[in-house]
């Protein structure tokens, strides 16, 4: 079939270069990570030891899962602030269903083995409720999840009467504290989930549909993607992953404080955005988000090793995020949204 | 072409959205292999018919048939796409994904893992098959309007449909690109593809279509072959009344009239070079040229949206600071931007507020704005430009394209400017709105303003006292009133450089 008479003008040469840049856009933070590794080794000889780096990864694994959940939701063009509250509330409720009243439970005393499945279920339900409000009621994701962030955290405070939970079933602590093949289980779990998400979003239709929806929801709908259903599923997955983050954090610390997860969402957004995930949707990769988490984790570790006083940490932390943003903007070449 | 098989029929379609009836027992029948125009004013029901014919909406009453067979069920998107392809008015290309992925959106693979290599190969084949010269790996957002549209056409046809709807495909293209599109449409027709073509430009209907259906006020008015429905009757059918063609007024510009807008030795790398231009009070100067001629870039420099590399712009004899819109406005300039949706108005604000943004400081003291005076000014503007609205408090978002454009023009005219720069004022507006927009520009000239009118429409340029033709960034010709289409087009295409 020949349909052309005059071929349309072709945009000139720079295309070739842009593609290559595009391919490496995921990795714009790699130089930052290398700089941090070098800087860290000067700060303290302990920094570059396997023990310390493993420690960094373990500490960040729960946050990394929240970043993963947020990145999925951002790529689909939505927003979820309530994830951080789920990190605390879902494990608290899951545990309270199995522990005796004396330990702070509801008194149902379900089998201890159910604590983790119940926790994930609660996380999924929060996500489903967010999705319900945003999709069925057509409310703004920002404001819905802001309210839900307060509601979910309030629920935890109310149910636990603001107390921490310490007497937890052994099975609940296992994932966050065990070692598999010489590495903490939390690192394995986080690593596997990231790998699954990278493959799903890179090589499967379902995953690609997140990009289509975030990029142009009407176009996605016209292409036969069930936009509402996919977004709903993403919210539910986000809630479940945040709940799992809560399980890992609980296992690492051995208890659930009333403030577990509080303030994480800003770190999660920072990590996702410096990793190249757009707040406008449709842009960014899970691998990029992962590099964002690594930057944040390394910065935090270096500050601790350097003995920066707690009062100044936030300032340094925030400034470094801004610098990382500027670097990724310059390296990526395009205006960030 | 003479085959009497109907590729598509819509019979007695009624569709209501709440209290408004978008289609009222309307229908259309398109013979296989013909290119059929659908025309009507904004709000006539064209868009609703498109979404019903493509299965995105289900009619309340009536039925759709393809080649005599009843339409598939609304849930069966694949079946719809095998019968009808559509290039929507709103782009359905996803800018953040590659060309290849856009072509195979949601069908990157039958099942399992996506092979990007084979996806790229399939995309290249498809692009080659339809003669679209685009790299499959480019981000779709980096493409120009024309290429994106070709991408949409190629994607639409790749589902195997033999009937394609083109909803205002020419609205955003410049002259040569429109011709290339028409060449493609002709060759598709030779291959037996049936098309429904929607456009506000009636001359395009005569150029590319064999028959035409007119919709008005949610009803089907007439269907005829284009030969049986001359231009005047077509306009009458659209408006429901006898509308005279626009009467271009004659003016004489006194040679002694002051120069209100001038550019001296203006250059901007990659856009235009060494441009001199001067507009006198009471004069309308047209700027014509293809999309790459630099005419829009030049006009946007005049109003301060760009900063030229060299040269000066003066409004009323004062040099304006380049790249600084407020300085141009202060010097007495009003302007209508190219894209009204992006730069023209704030959709949720009222007509009165939109129209008075540049003069807000005159409506009250110390930064306060008096709502009463604003309404009063708004009402005056509505009157002056004949804006169809429920009142000055109505948000601009609720208006039709033509009326929204009038609000943009009202904003430009709010401060009674001495110099006016108007870019593509009639893009996407219907015949009647077009007439009142052109009339308002002529009125402003009669009140003593000098205007620069940039347009892709030859008809718009007829109100100009002279037309400057640009080619590859330079003004190549200064054509006085009384030109013929051929003369101007030849100059725009760079065929005649005398």
How would you sum up this structure, described in words?
The complex is a heterodimer of chains A (337) and B (498). The longest helix of chain A is centred in the C-terminal third of the chain and has 27 residues, at 227-253. The radius of gyration of chain A is 21 Å and the shape is globular. Chain A has helices spanning 15-24, 30-43, 50-75, 83-96, 115-136, 141-160, 170-177, 185-203, 205-215, 217-222, 227-253, 264-274, 286-306, 310-332; strands at residues 179-180, 183-184. Chain A has 337 residues and is mainly alpha-helical. Chain A has a two-stranded antiparallel ribbon with strand order 1-2. With 498 residues, chain B is α/β, with parallel strands linked by helices. Chain B has 17 helices and 20 strands. Chain B has helices at 46-53, 77-83, 99-103, 116-129, 145-157, 175-190, 202-208, 231-239, 295-302, 325-330, 340-344, 351-355, 371-385, 401-413, 431-446, 458-461, 485-492, and strands at residues 6-17, 20-31, 35-39, 61-66, 69-70, 85-87, 163-167, 194-198, 211-216, 219-225, 259-268, 272-280, 284-288, 310-315, 318-319, 333-336, 419-423, 450-454, 466-471, 474-480. In chain B, β14 and β15 form a beta hairpin. The longest helix of chain B is centred in the middle third of the chain and has 16 residues, at 175-190. The relative contact order of chain B is 0.10. At the A-B interface, α1, α8, α9 and α10 of A face α2, α5 and α6 of B.
What would the keywords be for this entry?
heterodimer; A: 337 residues; mainly alpha; 69% helix; globular; B: 498 residues; alpha/beta; six-stranded mixed β-sheet
Radius of gyration of chain B: 24 Å
Low-confidence parts of chain B lasting 5 or more residues at pLDDT below 50? Answer: none
Name the quaternary structure. Answer: heterodimer
Portion in strands of chain A: under 5%
Structural classification of chain B: alpha/beta
How far the N terminus sits from the C terminus of chain A, by CA atoms, comes to 42 Å
Radius of gyration of chain A: 21 Å
Approximate shape of chain B: globular
Strand order in space, largest sheet of chain B: 6-7-8-3-9-10
Q: Report the sheet with the most strands of chain B, covering strand number, pairing sense and barrel closure.
A: 6 strands, mixed
Largest sheet entry of chain A: 2 strands, antiparallel
**Separate helix tally of chain A:** 14
Instruction: Encode the helix/strand succession of chain A as letters.
Output: HHHHHHHEEHHHHHHH
- What structural class is derived from the secondary structure elements of chain A? mainly alpha
Largest interface between protein chains, with number of residues from each side: A-B, 37 and 47 residues
Provide the helix percentage of chain B. Answer: 25-40%
Q: How much is the average pLDDT of chain B?
A: 86
Report low-confidence residues of chain A grouped into runs of 5 or more: 1-22
Number of strands of chain B: 20
Count every beta strand of chain A, where a strand is a DSSP E run of 2 or more residues.
Answer: 2
Helix content of chain A: 55-70%
